[in-house]
Design goal:
By secondary structure, this protein is an alpha/beta fold. Helix content is 49%, strand content 12%.
Length: 219
């Protein structure tokens, strides 16, 4: 085997070994972002692709004046998300992505998985809905939460003194309706690990990270 062939084979192996996707799914307000950071600490070369990040950037770049314009930007963000996933798969990257995935995203993600020969692990985070709503409400009231999530009109620099009165603030009834009907607790692609995060103090994150390592090693 020539030196060039050896380098090519080595590069292909390096890319192929990472052909895994970790989807952090499940109900909203279950600590997906926190778990994502733990994964990145253990696997710093992983590529994170976050739909909310893409959406929030579009809100800042373009703004919206109606709920219809907001939805159009969200759809554009989904197109950008799938394109980013595809680009990462073309490079053979290890991908980590978190979102309250539903059946809406399943066909496109499955199609990409098949096209690029990826393995997927779904970490489905669930918990007591009442407690999750308390967390969701606290998150939305926090000034660090992007205001675009809470309003039907937004332009970068806008503020809101009383977030609980914002036009798209998610009340308890709406939160529970979404959790009951959108299938967050049913979503799965590939292997599945389901974790109850009702009480964060009782979650064995080291065990979860070890299970992720097993998946990455093909066990």
């Amino acid at each position: 085997m020539s030196q060039i062939d050896q380098v090519t084979q080595s590069t292909s192996h390096a890319l192929g070994v990472n052909k895994k996707v970790i989807l952090l799914a499940g109900y909203p307000a279950t600590g997906k972002s926190y778990l994502c950071q733990l994964i990145l600490k253990r696997h710093p070369k992983a590529l994170t692709i976050n739909q909310d990040d893409l959406k929030e950037k579009m809100w800042d770049d373009f703004g919206f004046d109606t709920i219809e314009e907001k939805r159009a930007l969200e759809q554009s963000a989904w197109c950008a998300y799938y394109k980013a996933i595809e680009n990462a798969m073309q490079e053979g990257a290890l991908i980590v992505s978190d979102y309250p995935f539903s059946q809406k995203q399943r066909p496109q993600l499955e199609s990409l998985r098949q096209a690029y020969g990826y393995d997927i692990l779904t970490l489905r985070l669930v918990g007591d809905i009442d407690k999750l709503y308390e967390r969701s409400r606290a998150r939305d009231l926090d000034s660090s939460r992007h205001l675009g999530h809470l309003v039907s009109r937004y332009h970068k620099g806008d503020t809101c003194q009383e977030r609980s009165k914002a036009s798209c603030f998610v009340d308890e009834a709406t939160f529970k309706e979404r959790c009951a009907n959108r299938g967050y607790d049913q979503f799965q692609l590939g292997q599945l690990i389901e974790v109850d995060v009702t009480d964060f103090d009782k979650v064995n994150y080291d065990l979860i990270l070890d299970q992720i390592d097993d998946f990455l090693k093909g066990r």
